[in-house]
Amino acid sequence: MLHDVRYHSVLMKENRMVTWQERWRQRRTSWHLPDLHFDLENHASKLLPKPERRILVPLCGKSVDVEWLYREGHTVVGIEGIEQPIVEFFSERNLPYTTDHLTWAKVFKTEDDRLRMYCCDIFKMDMESLGKFDAVWDRASLVAIYEEDREKYAKVIKALLAPDFRYLISTTQYTPLEVYSGPPRNIPTALVEKLFSKLHFFVLFCISVNWEGCHGLSWMLPVCHSVFYCYIIKGDEDRSSKRDVNLQVRQCKG
Q1: CB-side neighbour CA atoms (13 Å) of 227
Q2: CB–CB of 52/75 below 8 Å?
Q3: What is the pTM of this model?
Q4: What distance in Å separates the CA atoms of residue 52 and residue 254, rounded to the nearest whole number?
């Protein structure tokens, strides 16, 4: 059994796009939420202190968060490696769209061009074409990235940030098991600080969850205890406390 799990992990790394494509095809998408994400709903004012922001949502899937941000009047750019969830996003919401084929991506966009989804490899994007973003909502991206790609991922994100940016990240922390190490992957606070060093880093909220006979939130974590964190990273000169944490403990019973 352990050998099979390790073999599956290696296989996923070697066939990344194929693996995620199969998960969407088979509807094994436990990370997808039917409602607006709790962290975005509660901390949108910190992510978006001004109206009409330009927002990046990496590895967006068909998240309802994208539509919410768009309906709030912002310009939204989603990055997704698999075409199926992008097509489903527009069709399920009856949003008319057109497509363009670039050398590095297929683009799906609304008629007003305020919402774009790029189907591409996040590490092969044309950074200059994408431009800079006022905000990033990272709900299921950093936690899905392979450990060896985290530094590269952070470099990509930082290169896309406007000077006065806001970056909201939702992560989880747990002790990885031999039979399970994600996704979602364990993201310690120290790692977030390391990846985004020299930026203004704040812990907004964390909730400690003890699971008794049930799986972990939307990702179905087969672990006994996990802590879910929400961070805001800023590009301005606000130097208030890095540890203004609202910690809650929740007992979940199956």
Answers
A1: 17
A2: yes
A3: 0.84
A4: 42
Q: Which CATH number fits domain 2-253: 3.40.930.10, 3.40.50.12280, 3.40.50.150, 3.40.50.2300?
A: 3.40.50.150
Q: What does the H/E/C string look like for 83-128?
A: HHHHHHHHHHCCCCEEEEECCCCEEEEECCCCEEEEECCHHHCCHH
Answer yes or no: are the C-beta atoms of 100 and 109 closer than 8 Å.
Answer: yes
Condensed to tens digits (0 to 9), the pLDDT of residues 57-78 reads 999 999 999 999 999 999 999 9
Rounded distance, CA 84 to CA 48, Å?
Answer: 29
Reported residue count of the chain is: 254
CA-to-CA separations, 202 to 49, 142, 172, 240, 252, in angstroms, rounded: 16, 17, 16, 8, 27
Q: Which residue has the tokens 């949108």?
A: 44
Amino acid at 249: V
Structure tokens at 219: 């990702």
Q: Does 206 have pLDDT greater than 60?
A: yes
Please name every residue paired with 176 in a beta bridge, in sequence order, or none if there are none.
Answer: none
Strand order in the sheet with 133-138: 97-101, 106-110, 115-119, 75-80, 54-58, 133-138, 161-173, 225-234, 200-212, 246-253
